[in-house]
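Step 1: inspect the first sequence and its tokens.
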Amino acid sequence: MFKMNFLKMRTNSALKKNKAMRTSIPYKQAQSIGIIFTVEDKQKHHDIKEFVHQLEQEGKKVQVLEFLPEKKENHEFLFDFFTIKDFSYWGKLQSHKAVKFSETPFDFLFYIDNQANPLVLDVLARSKARCRVGKYSETESPFFELMIEQNGTTKGLIETMHKYTQKLR
């Protein structure tokens, strides 16, 4: 699919050109948190909602963006989302909400997927977040400042990410 080849080129270019200030601040000082993920099932949706609630209880301002694959249900339409239709034939992201999300300078941006999604990686490549946190993968290391080694459930990944970012001082 040409769209994916062009997307990969655009993503790599965005990754190289992105001059966002990357630094982790102590978690307690963090105010804005971004969460991005690919829609999979109701359980994952529930886990993300729980995480958002937990972060809000800690006084964090949270924004969520989800990638909605074809033939997947958008549970509750609770979060902003983008789809493959939001990419042009040339792989250019055309979703206003996704572009705005990528331009937000979050203190921490959590990418909560067990398998990397090239469409979400494009948003991460453009992201102005100070510290991008994701699951460990050698090939995706340029997209993150903090990577978590974790094999298991989405809930386990969320808990491990949260635990390690809380330790940042």
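Step 2: inspect the second sequence and its tokens, then contrast the two.
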Amino acid sequence: MISNERRTILVVDDEMVIREVLEDFLSAEGYEVVAVSSGADALVELEEEHYDAVLSDLMMPQMNGLELMTEINNRGYQLVKVIMTGYGTIETAVQAMKVGADDYILKPFKMEEVLSVLDRGFDRQRLVRENITLRETVNLYRIAETIAHESDSGRILQEIAEASWQETQADFLFLSIFPTPAPKWDPGHQVKVGPLAGTDLQVDELEVGAALARESTLLVQGADGQTFLQGTGAPGPTVSFCAVPLQVPGRMLGLLAAVSFTRRTVFTEGHRKFLHILATKAAAALENTRLVEQLQGANRELLEANHQLQENFVQSILGFARAIEQNDPYTRGHSDRVARYSRIIAEELKFEAQLVEDIFFAGQLHDIGKIGISSQKLNKAGKLNAPEIRMFRRHPEMGKQILEPIPFMRHLISGVYCHHERYDGQGYPQGLAGEEIPLMGRIIAVADTYDAMTSDRSYRKALPMQVALDELGANLGTQFDPMVVQAFLAAVTKGRIHE
């Protein structure tokens, strides 16, 4: 890391005397000083080493001071730039400022003037850096806000990598998420950004991970950063290397590393802090994404298990309903036919698909309450006596009691409980009338009566279809809901119900 206490000055002047005087004086003031005689030599130095300031003569052969300042700016070197000249004019000073010089000194100069100019330049540079820090902070929280609301881990990683590269201007920005025991979340993911992203250059994740486990973050200047790289894509020795972990309590999710191979890009403590804060925010967002996906997966499994339990229970209930009919040749298949007729009526009435299926299901279960009535009583050939009638009329109530404890079947109770109600209020078990009777019960009542009339029973033979239809029409508005009967008759006309 570059020290703020011992800055390095590059002196550029074709006069040896000026170079030696400045070198001796500035060295005595605590600066490290390198002096060269031409603009070309200065550019070589700047490419190979880091400098905090350059003092350049204006009038030099081959490349003058203005041309040197222009080239320094074009290459992006961040340092204090001062022009020295013995031919000072207002025009020259203005021109120097235009090409990016921070200040201007006239020869012959006093040494105190040089110190004053450098101090002003370093103060200005500090203010600029503070302004950059503020901008970085704003960007940091903008990015953090973005990733906090993102649920796609791939997009979170790309956002982090792009933001990190924009702030550091690294030659190579590397982001890696380690493989986890949850491959559905991320089986190991890498993002590379920067001019060297397309090469085979790679960060040694094991080496960097081990170092981060010891030191929490890494900021290495010079060729020592080469230790953490693999591959042949590096254009030369490292100039600066910075790495931070993507860490959540108890676990490192991955790492974020920035590499520079050029002197104009040297990572600072500010870069390290920026990357560390961003990586911490990103790790939290990634962990939240993983936890949410785990929770969603567990919830899906629970829903699937619950659905399977419901399906098994439904099949058990249907099994009970069909078991009632299995030993009775007269009612065998009755519930399935009633369910089919009920579905056709519901479809003719243009009900929504889910309601149609609910009515069909209720039709299959409408007589489940008969499970408590002996087959001998159900198949009695003669007329039922009063106690037998009371017992028989209890089956809607029994069906209601069977379904009530089952939460996902309670919406079917109205069909089971009310299919013996009459439109004129003379039915049972509640004596409801008209639209007081739930629609599901009114539909099943028509389907149930039609199938009873067109099926053989112990006490009579099946009625012809037309006789049954005439009976429905005759009882329209008394026993049956006119709307439901009309829908049934419409289905017959369309050929959906036939003998």
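Step 3: confirm your contrast with the notes below.
The two ends are 95 Å apart (CA to CA). The longest strand covers residues 251-260.
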